[in-house]
Every structure is written in C-alpha cells, then in structure tokens.
Amino acid sequence: MKGFKGRIDTLQERLKKLREEEHLFYNREIQEHDNQFVVIGGKRYLNFTTYSYIGLLGHPRINKAAKDAIDKFGSGTHGVRILAGTTSAHVSLENTIAKYKRTEAAVVFSSGYVTNLTTISSLCGRGDAVFCDMINHASIVDGCLLSSAKFVRFKHSDMADLRKKLEETEAVGRVIVVDAVFSMDGDIAPLPEIIELAKEFGALVYVDEAHSTGVLGKTGEGIMEYFGLTEGVDILMGTLSKTIPAAGGYVAAKKEIIDWLKHQSRAYVFSAALPPGATAAAEESFKVMKEEQWRITKLRENYQYYIKTLKEAGFDTGPSETAIVPIILGDEWRTCEATRQLFENGIFIMPILSPAVPPNTNRLRANVTSWHTKEDIDFMVNTLSDVWKNMGIKPGSE
Predict the structure, then answer these.
(1) What is the reported pLDDT for 395?
(2) Which residues are catalytic?
(3) Would you tell me the crossing angle of helices 374-390 and 332-344 to the nearest 10 degrees?
(4) Helix, coil or strand: residue 252
C-alpha cells in the first residue's frame, strides 16, 4: 500500500504543479462541436485536436441513420453479441466493412482499444511470438502482453532489426503487428517490406488502420490502397471513432479468423453489443466516405500544406506524412506554455508529454482535417510563431 500511495502522491504533486502554472489542459469540457471549431467555456476555438479527419462528425445523413436505428432498436441492446445482442444493424455493418476492406468477413467490438486487446490475445498464446513495432499504440502492446506469447519489440520501422528478431525466434506461430499510421508521429509503416519478411519467415501480418482509413489511398480505403496492394495482410483492424464518427472497432479478415473471434474472443463473448445508434452511424459513414471523395482530396491538400507551412516557419514536424502532425518542441514547460498561449489566442490544441512520447520530444499533436481552410492553417502557424517569439525562442532551437 505504501508503494501505491507513493505513486498517487507523485501524480498529485505533478498535477498541482501544472495547475499552478496554468498548464493542466486535459479533460476540458467541450460544450459544442461546430465543424473545425469547438465551444469551451462559452468561447469558440479553432480545433486542431479532432480525429474527424474528413469532417464526417455531425453529417446529416449519419446523424439520421443513428436516430432511425434508435427508433427501431432502442438506445441499447439485449446483451452480448453471442446471445441476444446481435441485430440486423450489426450484421449489415460487418458486411459493409468486409466489402470495403475487401476481406471475407468482419467483426465489430465496443472500442478500438478493446479490439486490439482482445484480437491479439485471442489469436496468440504460449509458444507463439508477436513482433511489435517499438512505437505501436498502447492497445497493441497491451494485447501482446495479455496474450502470453513471446513479446518481441523491433526498432521503429527498422526492417533490418525486424529480420534479426525473426531469425532469432524459434516460435512456430508468428505475428507481425504494426500501426498503418503511427499515432504520435504521423508516419506510415513500410508495409511492402513487412509483407515480404512475413512471407519469408511464415508470419501473419496484423495492421491497425485507426489513423489510415479515410486518410491513405486515392479513395481513402487505407494503407493497402496507398501501396497498391491487394494481398499480404492477414488481419486489418480499425476504429469506428475517428474518420468514422461513431464508436467501436473492427477486424476484417478471412472468415475462419472472424469465426474464431466470434466464439473465442472474451470481448465479444462477454461484453455488451455495440449500441444500435453507433452501429448504424458507422455503416452510413462508410457509404458517405465512398460517395463524397472530395473530402479525402481536401484532407490530403490540407495536411501537405500544413506540414510545408510549419517547416517553412522553422518548426520540427518529425517524420509526419499524414493528417497527424507533431510539432516537436522538446522541453515540457515550453510545450505547455505554448499550449496555454495558443488557447488564449483562440486555438484548441493539446500537448503530448513524456512518458507518452520519449523524453525531450514533448510536442503539440496538431491534427488537421478537411474542414480546415488555408486561412485556418495560416492563422495557426502564424500564431504559434508569435507565441514562440513571445517566449524568446527561435523556431528550431533547443
């Protein structure tokens, strides 16, 4: 108990310090969403924190689909999917996802985090080995740890290191797990090279598309389309709470894998079904995304312009090549102070601090969407430059 109390006390001391410096920004109460704006404390702010990459949140068709489903099925379900919780809305959504991802079948879960946790731990076990990129999302890491398989981490997107780890591991059952777009840096996994190594060493490939669906590929289908691939990935995982503005997560794969998950996955067997409103909203989102292609085009134009403008202003955007744009400021105090001053100037953005990222790489994670205009982006970059000058720091300096 003493150790537990010590950890609580340490957290409270850190929170107290952040409050005193007006640097505690998390869990702000958002009173209203309005496209690229949010209302906080009765004031309107330009929002660079959202995951609604192609601006589907609040879309009239998607809202209507959710309302219609609630009118038909109610606000919840009668239990877990395997018993009384499966509705025609769930079946229809899973069929839509499988068709969209060009797989035999799909299954949905209550959240993206739970999807990774339960899928990896259900498919892998003792005697297997899971090869995990060093900066994969926490839900992937937790799924690997829960699985009881040998947990092997390889250097970020380092194919030589992955090859070395594959050569050194004697396990017969092998799975390589990567984010398609890495959630803190915004860079893209080298999928063709991963697939080649998987073929050579007899491994399955598992890709988390949380931040790539609606973002990568000419039509937004994701990382497979981006690289022009039609095969090589065994399991495609994704969320229904980012580009798709609902709730939940999914896995798309061969029917035998999906059947296994529907009868062996603890999160499927023992967790309540996805609510009908979210289920119907997610399905309609896939349809809208396919029909309104201008959104994907606009997003791509925006993140290319955003990264270019930030770099020209002297800021470090790391390896980002997508809608997740880290503005790496290094020092924790500077990062928090920049956040505070941006907020005072009408910009809602959040700091990402160690240990969520490595020490001295504290950053603003400045997501951009198809909602944003060039004027919005210019305002954000110019304001950040002014904030940096006010702090007496030259962009790019340590």
Answers:
(1) 67
(2) 183, 211, 242
(3) 120
(4) strand
